[in-house]
From TrEMBL:
Pfam families: DUF2207 (PF09972), DUF2207_C (PF20990). Keywords: Membrane, Signal, Transmembrane, Transmembrane helix. The keyword Lyase does not apply. This is DUF2207 domain-containing protein. It comes from Nonomuraea ferruginea. InterPro entries: DUF2207, YciQ-like_C.
Length: 536
């Protein structure tokens, strides 16, 4: 019986051993026998003999580590044999012998040079045992090794040099998947002449570093670019000088009749003053056409909650052939073959004609000789150049900051582009004739706001003050001059209407100032989606 039990125990033990053997084989790690030879130029030739394991094995090389605060250190793998290498990953089938070259593993270290390489690392399976032999073009000066995680400071199982001092030997028992055996060997200074491969790491502080080189270059570039913008404005965008005797208040009354300075009409004044054909210039021109007898403005009766409205009536026998081109364009856009139109009917539809009227106004101020080129075209040109320079500055700043430390130079281009884009609004330049007309116009404005009606005969005041009103619209003085117009009539008595403005049945001139203020506001809104008033 005892013999039978021993025999049964032996059979069970054998069966368990046979069952466990495949599992142990499946969990077995690999062994790596590595030989590293440092040659001239700092290239390390590596031969790895792999055994154990089963099936396909994969190793991911470490090709980038942190070197210092500003740089990463790169390791270049090349000439791989005995396996498939792509994108930093090596694939082999054990057993195998793999060869490859490494550049960037050598760096100066005081009075020596140091070889540092992750001789065994990145395997997707455990490494039961690893041995590493390192030789180079000189005697070994020092050596050390680290095992475990990449940042581990734990030494390897053993590290020594042979009796000749020309070979360093390292050994490590048991590395988990992904862990590394790092070997460090010192050789005489300049033995191989190897240098680390450094890649500058991007940082804002480094990209926009201020040092004597970038500081001096930035200052010089800023002076050059901003000086160029200033010179451009001085030579191309600056109004011609006007001598002091051109300024001062201007009395537009001659022999009891209105005569604006230099014959300038309201719409022209607006464009002359700020080099822009604004909606308010068009509104003032409509009032001017009424005052001069080309149309009549009839205020419509309304209930308490009705929106105000006006009927613009074309006057028969009006000498439309005497209109300036921009006035004719406006006159035609208002009536479009009809004899009368409500102001509310112009809302929305008139905006399509506004561009033509503005174009005609810009062409007119050039034809008058006040500008050498159209102000809008001049403004657009230089603003566009500034925006292009600004965009180029943004692109150059990004490129310089990413690839160099001269990002500040790109900022100088951005500043210059921004200055030109903003300065482009001031580039339209008046000629000497235009500058003189502007000086007279500003003198006329001072006269309008002085409140001095002069010695104008009472019979002439209604027409004369009405002629002032469109100019008051330009200078945002509608309230003041509307009250003056409403205060007098041709015979010295209060009247219900003006020759160019009619109110509803219950209306009289005491309400004219309020009506005129509402009319100009509503007109500006009707002919354009945006309302603009000029304040000087």
């Amino acid at each position: 019986m005892t013999g039978f039990r021993l025999t049964l125990a032996a059979l069970v033990t054998t069966a368990l051993a046979l069952i466990a053997a495949p599992a142990m084989a499946a969990n077995a790690g690999i062994t790596a026998d590595v030989t590293m030879t440092l040659g001239k130029g700092g290239t390390v030739h590596v031969v790895e003999k792999l055994a154990g394991g089963s099936g396909e094995l994969k190793r991911t090389f470490l090709t980038r580590t942190r070197h210092d605060d500003a740089n990463d250190r790169l390791y270049e793998i090349s000439n791989v044999k005995g396996g498939t290498y792509a994108d930093g990953a090596l694939t082999v089938t054990s057993p195998a012998t793999v060869e490859y070259d490494v550049k960037g593993a050598v760096a100066p270290a005081g009075d020596a040079e140091e070889l540092r390489w992750f001789a065994v690392s990145g395997w997707d399976t455990a490494v039961d045992k690893a041995t590493v032999k390192v030789t180079g073009p000189g005697l070994v000066q020092n050596l050390s090794c680290f095992a475990g995680e990449l940042t581990s400071a734990i030494g390897c199982t053993s590290a020594a040099m042979d009796h000749t001092g020309t070979q360093a030997d390292f050994e490590q028992e048991g590395l988990a998947p992904g862990q590394a055996l790092t070997v460090v060997v010192g050789f005489p200074e300049g033995a191989s002449g190897g240098q680390p491969i450094l890649d500058k790491r991007f940082s804002l502080a480094g990209a926009f570093a201020l040092n004597p080189v970038t500081g001096g270059a930035l200052a010089a570039l800023l002076v050059l670019l901003l000086g160029g913008v200033a010179l451009l404005y001085w030579t191309r965008g600056r109004d011609a000088r006007v001598v002091s005797h051109e300024t001062g208040a201007v009395n537009p009354v001659r022999n009891g009749h209105f005569s604006p300075p230099d014959g300038v009409r309201p719409g022209q004044i607006g464009t002359l003053v700020d080099e822009q054909a604004d909606v308010v210039d068009v509104t003032a021109t409509i009032v001017d056409l009424a005052v001069r007898g080309y149309l009549r403005i009839d205020e419509q009766p309304r209930q308490t909650y009705d929106a105000p409205d006006w009927l613009l009536v074309r006057l028969p026998h009006a000498p439309s052939h005497t209109l300036l081109p921009y006035e004719q364009a406006l006159y035609d856009a208002i009536f479009e073959g009809r004899e009368a139109v409500l102001l509310s009917q112009l809302s929305g539809s008139f905006a399509a004609h506004l561009g033509k009227v503005r174009d005609a106004l810009y062409a007119d101020v050039v034809r008058q000789g006040w500008f050498a080129r159209r102000p809008d075209a001049e403004r657009t040109l230089w603003t566009t150049v500034g925006v292009v320079l600004l965009v180029a500055g943004v692109v150059s700043t990004a490129l310089l900051a990413w690839f160099t430390s001269y990002g500040l130079l790109g900022l100088a281009v951005i500043i210059a582009g921004g200055a030109l884009a903003v300065g482009g609004q001031y580039m339209p330049a008046k000629t000497a004739k235009g500058a003189a007309a502007l000086a007279h116009t500003l003198g006329f404005r001072d006269f309008l706001f002085s409140g001095d009606v002069g010695n104008v005969a009472e019979k002439d005041r209604v027409e004369l003050f009405s002629r002032y009103l469109p100019y008051a619209v330009i200078f945002d003085g509608v309230e003041h001059w509307s009250r003056l117009v409403a205060s007098v009539t041709g015979n010295g008595h209060q009247a219900d209407n003006l020759y160019w403005y009619h109110g509803p049945a219950e209306w009289d001139l005491s309400k004219f100032a309020g009506s005129m203020r509402t009319f100009t506001t509503t007109t500006s809104g009707a002919i354009s989606a945006s309302r603009q008033f000029r304040t000087l």
